[in-house]
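Researcher: Structure prediction, please.
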Amino acid sequence: MTDRLGGHLAGDSREARLGERASSHLVLAKRAIHLGVVRDVPHVAAIVADRDGILYEGGAGVRIAGGSDDPVTTSTQFRIMSMTKMVCTVAALQQIKRGELDLDAPVDSYCPEFAGVVVLEGSTGTRRGLSAAASLAGCNSGFCQELPLRTLKITPKGDICADASPPPPGSSMTPDGITVWLDRGGPAHANDAIILERLALAVRIRHGRGGP
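Model: Predicted structure follows.
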């Protein structure tokens, strides 16, 4: 177990200097880490901060329960998925308040790589899902189902490819008899896995194969 207060989360003199408000934050953080350990939660990372900076940070447990002895710290990276929405929302609101972000400006004025992204409207069918995936990935995306047999490949611009050849090795996912893939002509990019995962979920729902 590690923490910035030193030792085993003691630091009583440190808490006294931080004052009553900071002490209450420290107590909550310590409880979170303690409960994480004694109730068999594999790991906990906690940070307490206010507008003046970090008051406390600490971690407990290992990175992968039963599979790694690497200790968890506040520098350990976690795949937090949709929790990023809250972090991004707070950051965006702060930038708006400082006059650094204009909600009415085109996205590509801040992120030029989004200039060619296809914006979809209306109901989401298989082709629209493939188009969105291809646009995000920057390469063709494909779909194939076994029964009834159907194959479809879409370009990043939303056009249907005449060549609906099978997916390259290692680039596809096949849930419930439905195969989706990205037709990338080189090493996978950082977001390929999550794009495929969400595309597979969308087409499963679209074709009545269930939800998450």
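Model: Strands lie at 2-3, 43-50, 53-61, 141-145, 150-154, 172-173, 178-182.
Researcher: Thanks, that helps.
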